[in-house]
Amino acid sequence: MINKKRILVLAPHTDDGELGLGGSIARFVDEGKEIYYSAFSLCRRSLEPGLAPDTLEIEVKAATKILGIPAENLRLFDYDVRHFSSFRQNILEDMVVLKKELKPELVFLPCSSDLHQDHQVIHNEGLRAFKDASILGYELPWNNLNFQTSCFIKLQEKFVMKKLEALQAYKSQSHRAYLNEGFIRGLATARGVQIGCEFAEAFEVMKVIY
Fold it and tell me: Is the pLDDT of residue 1 over 80?
């Protein structure tokens, strides 16, 4: 499945893509794959008081650049955080435009058990929009009571380090427990142990097209 050349990452909010598969993105870039990243909210309402409204827009541009995603491959929308359900049809239409423009062979989106309301919308509309692509669901453990680890991507140390470097670009979110380096490395180590390697990221297989 990972022999797909054109890959699209759907992130409900800035940083979700890096958290869910930052190491895999770094590996894909290293392998010469064509990576696109789309975030659907700049989370202006959830910023700490005193921060500029465009803080997360600046940070996601810096983070994806660190991972090696070209600036022209970044697509940003600005739906209101925690209110995606009110804009479900608009989001679906945006995804249909992305499908026609980018023609991805593999799409990453939040897993089916993700509890966050915005993540559920991106998951459901992503399944509708990208019917002709393989789809993998990434894990964000703080949102998942359970997770189907049905696919693993092996990572070298350098890819884990690149993920950590990208996440450090989110200075406005540094207080979040899940941005802790120990947690990020620990999860990558745990997933690696499951398949007998040093590091890995795990995914839920939603659909595979050969």
Answer: no
**C-beta pairs of 85-93 under 8 Å, 24+ apart in sequence:** 85/117, 85/121, 88/121, 88/125, 91/40, 91/121, 91/122, 91/125, 92/125, 92/128, 92/129
Helix (H) or strand (E) holding 136: strand 134-138
Instruction: State which residues form the domain around 111.
Output: 6-207
How many structural domains is the chain composed of?
1
Residue 1 lies in a domain: no
**Which pLDDT tens digit goes with each residue over 29-74?**
999 999 999 999 999 888 889 999 999 999 999 999 999 999 999 9
- In the chain, % helix, strand, coil (3-state, to 5) comes to 50, 20, 30
Residue 185: name the closest of 165, 170, 208 by CA.
165
> How much is the pTM?
0.97
Residue 181 and residue 108: Cα distance in Å, rounded?
A: 23
What CATH number corresponds to the domain at position 197?
Answer: 3.40.50.10320
